[in-house]
């Protein structure tokens, strides 16, 4: 299936994350969408400066940046963890939540930075442990622009509701997955198999919502 919003049947993904690229290509293929998804790095596009105040703003910044340079429609996502008792923190700063700590600054591996972020989150939540559960949401916002100045971008949002554990559980996943408890599955995100996670996660929900909107535009 071809769509009028992709005149060249091409789409730039404003990310260099191989996992996101593979997931998007797979879901487009399953939906029968004849669209070539290109990583921005393959077009020599550097990362945008994410200086927005919300997930939507940052996703749009990245999408418009990639579209302006490539001349093609572009899709970007912005994701993170929002904890209720922390006023939505770490939010858009989830990936660099512990950037002000020596542990994070000295870390070179992504897993070590994840560990630093998790430890800072646990420290900040310590005063609230007497009143469980500590509710949180994984958030994913997708922004698709037809061109860099698109006044009507397509926005899709996924929310995965859960709770924050007092200690990490599970060996899979990344980021805050070991601390994110899914009451529906009675497991942490790091204990869920990829098949389940790819069906219920915030990103999976946002992608399904995006595909639904694209099909409606067909």
From TrEMBL:
<keyword id="KW-0546">Nucleotide metabolism</keyword>
<comment type="similarity">
    <text>Belongs to the HAM1 NTPase family.</text>
</comment>
<dbReference type="GO" id="GO:0035870">
    <property type="term" value="F:dITP diphosphatase activity"/>
</dbReference>
<keyword id="KW-0460">Magnesium</keyword>
<comment type="function">
    <text>Pyrophosphatase that catalyzes the hydrolysis of nucleoside triphosphates to their monophosphate derivatives, with a high preference for the non-canonical purine nucleotides XTP (xanthosine triphosphate), dITP (deoxyinosine triphosphate) and ITP. Seems to function as a house-cleaning enzyme that removes non-canonical purine nucleotides from the nucleotide pool, thus preventing their incorporation into DNA/RNA and avoiding chromosomal lesions.</text>
</comment>
<protein>
    <recommendedName>
        <fullName>dITP/XTP pyrophosphatase</fullName>
        <ecNumber>3.6.1.66</ecNumber>
    </recommendedName>
</protein>
<dbReference type="InterPro" id="IPR029001">
    <property type="entry name" value="ITPase-like_fam"/>
</dbReference>
<feature type="active site" description="Proton acceptor">
    <location>
        <position position="78"/>
    </location>
</feature>
<dbReference type="GO" id="GO:0036220">
    <property type="term" value="F:ITP diphosphatase activity"/>
</dbReference>
<keyword id="KW-0547">Nucleotide-binding</keyword>
<keyword id="KW-0378">Hydrolase</keyword>
<dbReference type="GO" id="GO:0005829">
    <property type="term" value="C:cytosol"/>
</dbReference>
<feature type="binding site">
    <location>
        <position position="197"/>
    </location>
    <ligand>
        <name>substrate</name>
    </ligand>
</feature>
<dbReference type="GO" id="GO:0017111">
    <property type="term" value="F:ribonucleoside triphosphate phosphatase activity"/>
</dbReference>
<dbReference type="GO" id="GO:0009117">
    <property type="term" value="P:nucleotide metabolic process"/>
</dbReference>
<dbReference type="GO" id="GO:0009146">
    <property type="term" value="P:purine nucleoside triphosphate catabolic process"/>
</dbReference>
<dbReference type="GO" id="GO:0036222">
    <property type="term" value="F:XTP diphosphatase activity"/>
</dbReference>
<dbReference type="InterPro" id="IPR002637">
    <property type="entry name" value="RdgB/HAM1"/>
</dbReference>
<feature type="binding site">
    <location>
        <position position="79"/>
    </location>
    <ligand>
        <name>substrate</name>
    </ligand>
</feature>
<dbReference type="Pfam" id="PF01725">
    <property type="entry name" value="Ham1p_like"/>
</dbReference>
<keyword id="KW-0479">Metal-binding</keyword>
<feature type="binding site">
    <location>
        <begin position="202"/>
        <end position="203"/>
    </location>
    <ligand>
        <name>substrate</name>
    </ligand>
</feature>
<dbReference type="InterPro" id="IPR020922">
    <property type="entry name" value="dITP/XTP_pyrophosphatase"/>
</dbReference>
<dbReference type="GO" id="GO:0046872">
    <property type="term" value="F:metal ion binding"/>
</dbReference>
<feature type="binding site">
    <location>
        <position position="78"/>
    </location>
    <ligand>
        <name>Mg(2+)</name>
    </ligand>
</feature>
<comment type="subunit">
    <text>Homodimer.</text>
</comment>
<feature type="binding site">
    <location>
        <begin position="15"/>
        <end position="20"/>
    </location>
    <ligand>
        <name>substrate</name>
    </ligand>
</feature>
<dbReference type="GO" id="GO:0000166">
    <property type="term" value="F:nucleotide binding"/>
</dbReference>
<feature type="binding site">
    <location>
        <begin position="174"/>
        <end position="177"/>
    </location>
    <ligand>
        <name>substrate</name>
    </ligand>
</feature>
